[in-house]
Design a protein that fits this description.
The protein is α+β, with helices and mostly antiparallel strands. It folds into four domains: 147 residues, GAF domain (Beta-Lactamase), CATH 3.30.450.40; 151 residues, Beta-Lactamase (2-Layer Sandwich); 101 residues, 2-Layer Sandwich (Beta-Lactamase); 159 residues, Reverse transcriptase/Diguanylate cyclase domain (Alpha-Beta Plaits), CATH 3.30.70. The chain is built from 18 helices and 22 strands. The protein has a five-stranded antiparallel sheet. A five-stranded antiparallel sheet has the order 7-6-10-9-8, sandwiched between helices. The protein has a five-stranded antiparallel sheet with strand order 12-11-15-14-13, sandwiched between helices. Helix 4 runs antiparallel to helix 13, helix 5 packs antiparallel against helix 9 and helix 15 crosses helix 16. 33% of the residues are buried.
């Protein structure tokens, strides 16, 4: 093997200008070339239900996942150097020809193992003892590059799920049938996670479970679920509904809830079932969302997040359907009253004066009949004038028209109404016959659904798709006006520790408090949004880099002063912020990338600080 010092110098020469994937690829190929090792590979931990290593880069053909022939214990943070006897050290490597092994764990900023870098050779005592120490700086950088690569992949996955949720809510607001939305959710999840076999069971009017979606599960198996009665020991789904909490059966042949159904699970080759109850904002359990695997499997933290997010989305759709049904029933009741008691009827002359009004219209507007007969239409239609009302009445034809309007009641309340109007002849004079229907509840529901499609429910800030749309608008406006525009990327420091130690409810309280704090410090023209997890983005039109940096530091100070109570605990948090200002050739992608790079620099510098980048990093 060449001199270790020469290997270090050559690595510096060939890898110094590389970043990200290129750095990791270059490191693997150069180590293979410079050391002469027969095999060099770089792996990462698999995100699947089993603890495996996935080979990312190697100097020869490599499959994934892969049993790495070195010390693969994820908690071992020391390099491994073996000169011979690898088979005796690792029995699983008994059929491999390797004798010498030099391997390192790749660590993130919190010293957690992300993967491994290994050099393997069939020759005994091939690697020089001083080589691990000389290569340590390259290993540390490889860990940092792998961490950033995994963060980007994690962010891309978050964006995918957020986009799916936004699309589903938008379709719901547009009136897409519920059963079609439920099928779409399941299909999209199975498309992204092919090893997942999803099922949605809903409670019917008798309190029995009925399968409504499960495209990849055998139809014969789903038939066995029809009419399933929930119970404390009824499989995963029946127990999840009964207890109103998640039930995870990692091995269906061993879990006590599945004792009566083990033969059924074996017949249809089902190894595990994770079931999440669908509970709406009022605490009503509508059913379950379940995930099956062909082999025994335990959910990873990422899988738990997907389960919870999907269940919340499905519960929201089901709650919206319940509201729609209630509104439809109420609308039918109103229609019956209108037909039988002439509710909301009025006759108005061409000057806009009330000539007649039904009792229901008087009750709706809060006036007595005598009061209405001394009033004009513009007095109950806010924003109108005598001239505009007369023009509208003159344009009303005999065929009639239906439109939505707003009425002001006697106490000043604004009421959404659906108005039907047509011209009639009364005693030889033209008049307008009209009926008004209160649609305030329907309009309120529409506003709620529109808000749910644009607002992050936890923090009250914009969600990611809406924020990105606002960024495009602000960027175009700034470029046309030649005005400054700054972007802040904010991330809570060590937020995972709060969830791990105090639970996700405490984490939700922290995120909600942060949303309130940001709304207090920002100007009316600023835009704030949650782009996923504990990451936030702020758009600051009109602020240059130095002004934005001053604001970022003030935000950091305000956040550090927050105290959030969760149960008996008082939580304190800190944050890191990356600042970037719009440059001449920027688009939204490059501007966000520079702000994200600044955030990464703030973390790398020790967190709890703001870092500004005025141009792309070298």
């Amino acid at each position: 093997m060449p001199d270790p010092q020469r290997i270090r110098d050559a690595l510096l020469l060939h890898s110094a200008s590389c970043i990200g994937k290129k750095y990791l690829q270059q490191l693997v190929s150069q180590l293979a070339c410079l050391t002469g090792a027969e095999r060099v590979l770089l792996s990462q931990r698999s995100s699947g239900p089993h603890r495996q290593l996935q080979v990312l880069f190697a100097n020869d053909a490599a499959g994934t996942p892969h049993a790495l022939p070195c010390n693969c214990q994820f908690d071992n943070r020391q390099p491994l150097l073996l000169g011979r006897g690898l088979r005796q050290c690792l029995p699983d490597a008994g059929q491999l020809a390797w004798q010498s092994c030099l391997a390192w764990p790749l660590l993130d900023g919190d010293a957690h193992c992300l993967g491994h870098l290994a050099l393997l050779d069939a020759r005994p005592d091939f690697f020089a003892p001083e080589l691990p120490a000389l290569l340590l700086p390259f290993i540390e950088r490889a860990g940092a590059e792998l961490e950033q690569l995994q963060q980007r992949e994690k962010q891309a996955r978050r964006q995918h799920w957020q986009q799916l949720h936004s699309d589903i809510l938008r379709q719901n607001a547009q009136g897409t049938p519920l059963d079609a939305l439920l099928r779409t959710v399941v299909q999209q999840i199975e498309l992204a996670l092919p090893e997942w076999h999803c099922s949605i069971l809903l409670l019917d009017s008798r309190g029995r479970l009925q399968p409504v979606a499960g495209p990849s599960l055998p139809s014969a198996y789903q038939q066995r679920l029809v009419g399933l009665a929930p119970g404390p020991m009824v499989g995963s789904c029946g127990a999840a509904v009964w207890h109103a909490k998640r039930v995870v059966a990692e091995n269906l042949q061993l879990h006590p809830n599945w004792a009566p159904y083990r033969e059924l699970a074996a017949r249809f080759e089902l190894g595990s079932c994770w079931s999440e109850p669908l509970i709406d904002s009022k605490g009503t359990v509508h059913g379950t969302f379940a995930v099956y695997h062909r082999t025994p499997s335990a959910p990873t933290p990422q899988a738990i997040t997907i389960l919870e997010d999907t269940a919340r989305l499905l519960a929201l759709l089901l709650e919206n359907q319940t509201i729609h049904r209630q509104l439809d029933s109420r609308s039918q009741w109103y229609r019956a009253i209108l037909q039988n008691a002439a509710d909301g009827l009025s006759i108005i002359d061409m000057n806009g004066r009330f000539l007649e009004a039904s009792d229901s219209l008087c009750q709706m507007l809060g006036y007595s009949l005598d009061e209405l007969l001394h009033m004009h239409l513009w007095q109950v239609v806010p924003g109108s004038t005598p001239q505009s009302i007369r023009q509208r009445l003159a344009a009303t034809g005999e065929d009639g028209e239906t439109f939505e309007s707003v009425n002001r009641t006697k106490d000043g309340t604004l009421l959404d109404v659906e108005v039907s109007a047509r011209r009639l002849m009364l005693d030889g004079q033209p008049v307008i016959w009209g009926s008004a229907r209160d649609i305030s509840q329907r309009k309120a529901l529409q506003r709620i659904l529109e808000q749910q499609a644009t607002i992050d429910a936890l923090t009250g800030l914009f969600n990611r798709p809406t924020l990105l749309t606002r960024l495009e608008t602000q960027l175009q406006l700034a470029q046309v006006q030649h005005a400054p525009l700054s972007v802040l990327m904010l991330d809570l420091d060590h937020f995972k520790q709060i969830n791990d130690r105090y639970g996700h409810h405490a984490g939700d309280l922290v995120l909600a408090a942060l949303g309130d704090a940001l709304e207090e410090v920002l100007r009316e023209s600023d835009v704030a949004g949650r782009i996923g997890g504990e990451e936030f983005c702020l758009l600051l039109p009109g602020l240059g880099l130095h002004e934005a940096l001053d604001l970022a530091e003030r935000i950091i100070d305000d956040i550090s002063e927050l105290r959030i109570q969760s149960g008996h605990h008082i939580l304190a948090i800190t944050s890191s912020i990356g600042v970037a200002c719009l440059q001449a050739d920027d688009d939204s992608r490059t501007l966000l990338a520079r702000a994200d790079s600044a955030l990464y620099a703030a973390k790398a510098a020790g967190r709890h600080r703001a870092v500004a980048l005025s141009a792309d990093p070298p």
